[in-house]
Structures are given as C-alpha cells and as structure tokens.
Amino acid sequence: MPKLTIDNLEVTVPEGTNVLEAACALDIAIPHFCYHEALGAVGSCRLCAMMFTDGPVKGLQMACMVKAQDGMVVSSTHPDAMELREHVIEWAMTNHPHDCPVCDEGGECQLQEMTVAGGHSKRRFRGKKATFTNQDLGPFIQQEMNRCITCYRCVRTYRDYCGGTDYGVLGSRNRIFYGRFQEGKLESPFSGNIIDACPTGVLTSKPFRFKTRLWDLQEAPSICPHCSLGCAIVPGGRYREVQRVRAGINRETNGFFICDRGRFGYDHVNHPERPRQPRIGGQPVALETALDAVRDRIAVLVEAHGPNSIAFLGSSRASLEANALLRDWASAYGSEQLAYEAHQGRDYAARTLAARVGGHACSLGDLRQSDLIILFGADPLAEGPMLAVAIRQAVRGGAKVVTIDPRPVELPCTTLHIPLPASRLPELLAALGSGDLSAFDAQERATFAPLLDQIKAARRPAMVGGADLLGGQGIAALCSAAADLSTASRAVGVMALLGGPNSYGGALLAGDGPGFDTLLDAIQERTVRALVCLESDPFCEALDPARAQAALGHLELLVCIDSTPSLAAQRADIFLPSRANAEMSGSYINNEGRLQEFLPVIDPGLPIKVTGAGDHPPREFFQTTPGSAPAADWWLLAKLLERATILAELRKTMAKYDERFSMLSFLAAGTTGLRLPVKVALPPVADRGLPHADGSDNQTLLATTGPLGSHWLAHLSAPLAATEPQPYVCLHPDFAAALGLASGDRARLTTRFGHCHVEVRLSAQMVSGLVLAPQLWDTALEGLAPGSLHDCRLEKEARA
Amino acid sequence: MTELLPQEQIDSFKARAAAIAHPHELIVDLLRAIQAHYGWVPDDGVLLTAATLGVLPIEVEEVATFYDKIFRRTVGRRVIHVCDSICCWSIGAEMILAHLQQSLGIGLGETTADGAFTLLPTCCLGACGDAPAMMIGLTTHGRLTPEKIDETLQRERAAIAAEVAK
User: Fold this and answer.
1) Which residue in A has a C-alpha nearest to residue B123's C-alpha?
2) Least crowded by CB within 10 Å, which of A277, A289, A696, A770?
C-alpha cells in the first residue's frame, strides 16, 4: 500500500493505483480525457500532467501513466503543469467549433469543463478548422464529427470494451474520423454507450435530439426494468415524458455501461395507448370508486365461495414492496392462490435459484474476474445483454468461455460452442457434478471430459444458466453441480438469467406456493373466480397462452393494475393505472439477490407533446395534471389494504415481519445496493416441466427470447420497436437442406396458433432437427412463450 | 482492367494469411497489390482485402485511410508526392511546390485534366539529405530545382505517352 503526498495531502492507496486515481481519491480534480476507470489509462490526451517534485519519479509526468509509489511528492498546481495543461487543451480546441449555444451536449460537456479547468480561454489559432461529412449511424446515434477532439474514447468503448466490430478510427492527423466503413446502423447492441463515452457533442442520442436542454432535464438514479441483471441507469425526463436514459455506475453490476435495450427502452412510459384512467367495465371512474369496487366485489366473492376463490398474480416488473403487499393482501383473505410469474418455467427457475444458490451467487462484477465461464442454456444478448459485456471483460483478462445450448449463442468474444438439446442440459449438469459421464456416448464424452478438467483446474470458475431453457429442474441441477464442483479453496460461482427485474423478489415471496398453471387449473374448474393481476399479463405471458386465454374467460372478476396497454389491462373488469418505475420509488431484487432502490424521475401525466399536439399546450387551468391518475403499485395496494401509503412505513413493516428484507430500511438509491443475506428459502414445488411437442406434426419448434421484440416493455418503446425484426426462424444448415430451404428463403410456418410467414436464417451453431423461433410481440409469433416446444410445419414459399 | 486483383494473387495472400498468427500484417501488402494492379483501392478493394485476410472491413479501412500512399480515390497515372516537412521547407519546398502547381496547372490533391499527374503533399520522404525532395511512383527525386522538375516531368510525360500507345 504505497503512501504518497499530493498537493500537501497524504494518501495511501492500493498497490497498482495510478497517481491520477490517487488524486481522485483525495477529491483533487485533474482534467483528463483518455483515462476512464473502465477503459484504463493510455496516456494519450496529455491533460493530467502533474509535477513530481520528490520521490522515486521526478519531473512533469502524466499522472495516469505513473503508478503510485511510496514517498512520491506530487503537485497538481505547479506552474509548469498548469501551463502544459493550458497548452494541451488549447491544442485540443483548435478545430472545435464554437457552437456551444446550439450544441446537443451543452450542459454536460466535459470538453467545456476541461477547457475551463485547463485555463484556456482565448483562441489564438487563426487557420481553417478541419471539417467533415457526417455519417448516418442509424436510429440511435447522431454524429457531428466537426466537434471531435480525437480522444479515442468512443472506439475504446465500442470496440475494446463492448466488442463491436463495425466502428473505428479512420485517416490520420487532422483528418481523423470516427465512424463506420460505410454508412449504416451501428450493429453492436451496446452502441449507445458511445453517447456517454464521448466527452463532447460528437456522438449524441438521436431519439433525444432537440427535446430538452440538459440543465432542464430531471434525473434520478434508477434500476433498469428490461431484464433481471438490475443495471444502474439514470433516466431523464421533462415535459411529462421520459426522454432518455444514460448509464448509471454500479461496480457490482453493470459497471459504467448499459445495453441499447436499457438505453432506448424508456419510451413505454410515454406510450400513446398507455391506460391512465381507473376503469370499471371499460368506463373511466374516479380512483376511490375503483378501489371501493375492488374491495366490495372481492368481499362478495370471498363471502360466497371462500377465500381461495380469489387468486393473485404478482410480477417480475412490479416493485418488491407491491409484490409483498400483494402477499399480505392474499393472506388477509386467507387465500393461498398466489403466484409471482405467469411463465411457470421462469417462476420455478427463480424460486429454485433463490432457494438453492446460497453462497455461490455471483455478480457481474465477480464474473468480470472469472477465468472460466460456462453458459448452460443462456443467451446473454437476448436474456441479459450486459452479461455478454461482463463475459467479454473476463475473456480480455484471459478467461475461457464455453456455451452449451441448442441455440446459436453469439457473444462479443471468442467462445467454444457445444450444441446440445435443452432437455439434456440438466442431465449434463448432473453428470458434470458427479464426474460420471457414462450416460454420454464416446463422442460426447470426448467433448465434455476436457470441460470437467477445465472446471477443476479453474481458479474462479462460474456457471451461468438461463431460466427459459433450464426451468426449475435445470436451475436445481446447475446449483447442485456448482456445489459438487466447489472445493474448500474455491467456490464455483452461479448466475442465472431470470424473467424480469424483480423475479428474485417474487421468488422469495412465493416460497413453496402454487405455480400459475395450478391457478389456471383452479380457474378452469371455477374454484377460483377472481384474479388480481399486478403488472402482469397472464393472457400473453403464460407458458401456454391459448390455454390461459380459455381458462381466464371463465373468471367472474379480473382486476388489473398496470402501466402498459396489456391485454389484461384491456380485458380487466376493474383496472387501476400504476406508475412506471421511472415515475416512482421502489426496489427490485436482481438475479443475484441484490436489493436495489430506484427513485422517481417525473410524475405521471399526459406528455406535453400529446396535450399540445406539437404546439403550446392548451391554456387551461385545472387542479390536476391531465393523465396523472397512475399511482405507484405499492401505493394502490396499500390503499386497497387500508394501510398507510408511506413507503418508509411499508418497508419498516416488511423488514419487521420478514428478516430477509431486514435491510430494506438501509437501502439507498444510486449505490451498489445490498446483497441479501444467504438464507435458504423453502424448496419450491416440483417442476411440472415445459410443454412438449406431441409429435403429431412434422417438426419441433423451440420458442426462445430474441434480442429484440420479445420483451414487452422494450416492445412498447418507439425507438426500439423500429429496430425489431420481422418474424424469422433459425435452422441448422443440414436440417434446412433436408427441408429444401436456404438462407433468406421465405417459408410458411404452421403451428397450433395458425399460419405465419417467416424468413429462414441458418446457423451451423445450433442443434440440427430443430426449428428455432423467437417470441415477437404483435406478430404471429407472440404466442411462443420462451422455452416452450411446439409441433410445427415449415414449408418453402415461392419468392414474391 | 476490371478485376481488382488476379485470382492467383488472391489465393497466394489467402495462403500466407493462413500461415501467420496476425493476418493484419498483410493488409498493407494486399492493398498495395490491388493498387498496383487496379490503380487505386475502391470500396470493393477494401472488402476484398478483408475477405481474403479474414479481418474486419473497418480494420482494413483504418489502415487504408491512415497511409497517404494508399489511394482510396482515383489518381492520375503518376502520383507526385511533394515533401512539406521541416528540412525541405527550410530549403525552399514552398517554391518547389509552387513551381509544380504552376507547371501542372493543378492544386494539391488534384489530378491534371489528361489524367497524367496527381499532386499530393507528404510529410518526409526520408530524403532530408537531398532536400528539397519529391517522389514520383517509387522514385525519389532530390535537390530539386525548377529546371530539374521540368526535366523530370517531361521524361514522365514521354513515358506515359509510350504506355498509352501500348
């Protein structure tokens, strides 16, 4: 631990820290561009110069390039250092246009800050500035190359850190240009990070352009609702709409970056069809009337048919507080009909994980340090994109990655892919755990035996599973294998990709309660007569949507609390509008058991762009904001339960009665969150397994989550919806050849949901003999619950 | 001259790329081969290089646009690189450049109407001892004077005429 003196202040820092980081630890602000905690130091911007006056290093040095050593005496305010910085920033500014008043970066321009901090104020360069022709980089990124100061941060972020392959640095000297070989959309699913990385207005958000000056934007720390990883985000809102999202910093989860689904998926909050009014039988009513109606009608049913005639369905996108209140509500009636995820495979996977993972749980931060990562039925780009970036960092540190999956699994790094049918994944996990591979044939043994050796030799191995393909049984096998392969000196880490941002929270609350399919049976048999849906849509999210829709038709009462125009919201007898997570406080538990808080950015209301229809909003005066009826999900439930509608009170009560939530009161937004104590929950009920094909038709279809189009909230976001694919299927080339299909062919896909036209894609990475199709909302493929198998027929169509 | 590079050369580069650990090393060689054969490197030349060596198109483009001796636009039959670096500048490079521009009737970065010459500035030809210097094709011409330039241009014009006649 070297101890050094910077600006007459002593500081002791860990071995390997550079002097710039040591100065930052002392809150000494040194201008810098190229140094970034995630990207490292490269010493190219020459801005962090400091004078080393005594000790092992002497003279004017770039602080980021010097490792802190004992006895160093450093000055950040030495006249030579100040003068150098002034010249360097003047130099960086020679070609920079003076368009600050109209620049999209205005308000958060680091270049402006560094220029002021560097002491440069007067332009001396009289020559012509370099100018460029911008490229169209697609719907997300706006390029304005004239503002570029060639700091290289975008390329280091896009290519080095996130693994993009279509963006680079062209030219030399003052002709340097950052862009693509040819114009077009940036292909990386992490492209938006270059918006955050760019210190000035070269790369800005296209959907956010011309919406708000940044000092007018309201921001608050939040948690991304688009997958189970719980990445830190900072949404920004104004004019009663969420207008953008930038990455938050959480070194235990996402680090400094987020995926494009998280960044451009905010627009569900502003969806034009979002239901904002409480309704009874489709007619708008006052909130109190709707709340009374819920209480009264449920009371009547309980009176007539007993408490178990009421079923409750929470969700993985509702806050932990609301889900907990839902449980309290069910137990207040004495109902045992409570489930937390309509997709039973995901539900059991989450519950099994929460019960079994124990001390093996590993965070994205842990994964970045792994030396061996094996993915079993997990497709990070679809099910948790930032996991792919974390895996890439492990690979950059020397890790090996193996993916075992029936699907092709693309990752932004070198991997070994082993195709294996989903049904055999638990079998493989059990075999790896016991070390007995005799159930596999000789060829498979030759593949898996070295894997076993690799796991045993690895120092920080991690195993990753996907809820969609593994289900409860698979996750149980994953946890067992990890336990079996752990030794006294090192544990095997476990991470599972779950259904939603709060799947883990729902799993803790569900315990050994019934799965949603059991509830559906009860609805079918009319023992359950009313269903309360908390931000869930059983019509679409159930493993078998057709069966769910048939059963749900028998309900006497459907109550729905939601912030989206879901089918359940449309069909509800009583509907209560809730807030999106950017509009409320609450907490989620991510897929590793990390409890994290989010804060409201804006209050709900019809966006000004709607009320004003592009012009000044109407000059009318009301006591309330139009469209402001949505309330926080926990607020609505507290009302229904006639409890105090104060979040701190609700949390205190939760912490008091459930020790697993004892940390809720210590929660703070914008921090790393709190890892739940390792506590074994009740074992979940036996997994019923995923619906399987009955072999009556020609081919078997495996439904899966796609990178885009399969996620309900993201699908409701206009910037993302524009990039969603048309229906497609993916086949192994051999299988496609047997069916007479080639890449790019149009085909007719027949399932029990009907016919559909699809494009044929080929991948040699997948299991042969299988038709792979993504669930795509608002297409003929929307009924394909990820992880389910279906009989199908695929026929070639003549090209149009 | 429609093909970018003869197939046997492409195959040879493929074989060499497969035999080495870093095929990126061959980007410059392959680009120069295309340029020697085709005259310059069009977008398809970048894509051909990427496909032949198994590297990304953007990686090829980064190299192609970095070097001023790789031409990503059409050029004349002879490219004149005039040094504008410190040694040449201190001994009259500006005068040399002015004379070249005047006798060719073009500015920097331009090509004569007959497609014979393209004039480009370059930073240091490594001929500081013979400053002021320029390079035509792969031949360096040092200790330039207006007379020497006129003589050289005349010789090149004659050579071009002979090429065209063929």
Assistant:
1) A173
2) A696
pLDDT in tens, A466-486: 999 999 999 999 999 999 999
Name the one residue in this structure whose structure tokens are 């490792």: A67
Backbone angles phi, psi at A307, to 5 degrees: -65, -30
- From the list B46, B58, B66, the residue facing A167 with the nearest CB is B58
| pLDDT score for A681 | 56
Identify the residue among B61, B68, B69, B73 best suited for mutation to test binding to A, counting A beta carbons within 10 A and taking the highest: B61
* Cross-chain Cβ contact A168/B43 below 8 Å: no
Q: What's the CATH number for A281-345+505-581+625-658?
A: 3.40.50.740
Residues of chain A with CATH 3.10.20.740: 3-92
Instruction: Please tell me the CATH code under which domain B78-165 is placed.
Output: 3.40.30.10
Pick the CATH number of A699-796 from 3.40.50.150, 3.30.2290.10, 2.60.40.10, 2.40.40.20: 2.40.40.20
Q: A353-411: per-residue pLDDT in tens?
A: 999 998 999 999 999 999 999 999 999 999 999 999 999 999 999 999 999 999 999 99
CATH 3.30.70.260 fits A348-498, yes or no: no
Query: E strands of A239-321, at which residues?
Result: 241-247, 279-280, 283-284, 310-313
Q: Do B58 and A165 touch (CB under 8 A)?
A: yes
Convert the pLDDT of each residue in A573-630 to its tens digit: 999 999 999 999 999 999 999 999 999 999 999 999 999 988 888 898 888 899 999 9
pLDDT-based confidence at residue A698 (cuts at 50, 70, 90) = confident
A110: nearest Cα among A81, A70, A153, A80: A153
Q: How far is A457 from chain B (nearest CA, A)?
A: 27
Q: Considering only the beta carbons, identify the residue of A165, A172, A181 that sits closest to B61.
A: A181
pLDDT at A333: 94
- What pLDDT, on the 0 to 100 scale, is given for residue B1? 52
* Cross-chain Cβ contact A167/B56 below 8 Å: no
Q: Which residue among A169, A175, A181 sits closest to B57, beta carbon to beta carbon?
A: A181
Q: Which residues of B touch A171 (CB under 8 A)?
A: 65-66
| Mean pLDDT calculated for residue range A501-505 | 96
Chain A contact set for B67 (CB, 8 A): 172
A150 min Cα distance to partner chain B (Å): 14
CB environment A316-339: b (16+ within 10 A), e (fewer): bbbbbbbbbbbbbbbeebebebbb
Q: In this structure, what token pair is assigned to residue A388?
A: 């792919």
The structure tokens 């340097």 sit at A176
Q: Please name the residue that has the structure tokens 């048309």.
A: A726
Spatial CB neighbours of A367, under 8 Å, sequence gap ≥ 6: A373, A387, A390, A391, A394, A462, A464, A493, A495
Give the closest-approach CA distance of A153 to chain B in angstroms. Answer: 16
H or E element at residue A126: none
Q: What is the pLDDT of residue A227?
A: 96
Q: Within an 8 Å CB–CB cutoff, is residue B62 touching chain A?
A: yes
The third-level CATH classification (topology) of the domain covering A3-92 is Ubiquitin-like (UB roll) (3.10.20)
Give the pLDDT band of residue A105 (cuts 50, 70, 90).
very high
Q: Return the percentage of chain B with pLDDT > 90, whole number.
A: 95
CA atoms within 13 A on the CB side of A785: 27
Instruction: Look over chain A and give the mean of its residue pLDDT values, rounded to a whole number.
Output: 93
Q: Does B44 touch chain A (CB under 8 A)?
A: no
Is B43 near chain A, with CB under 8 Å? yes
pLDDT of A695: 45
Contact B65/A at CB under 8 A? yes
pLDDT of residue A238 exceeding 50: yes
For chain B, the structural domain boundaries read 7-66, 78-165
Q: Is the pLDDT of residue A684 over 70?
A: no
- Closest partner residue to B62 (CB to CB) among A165, A168, A182 is A168
The complex's ipTM? Answer: 0.91
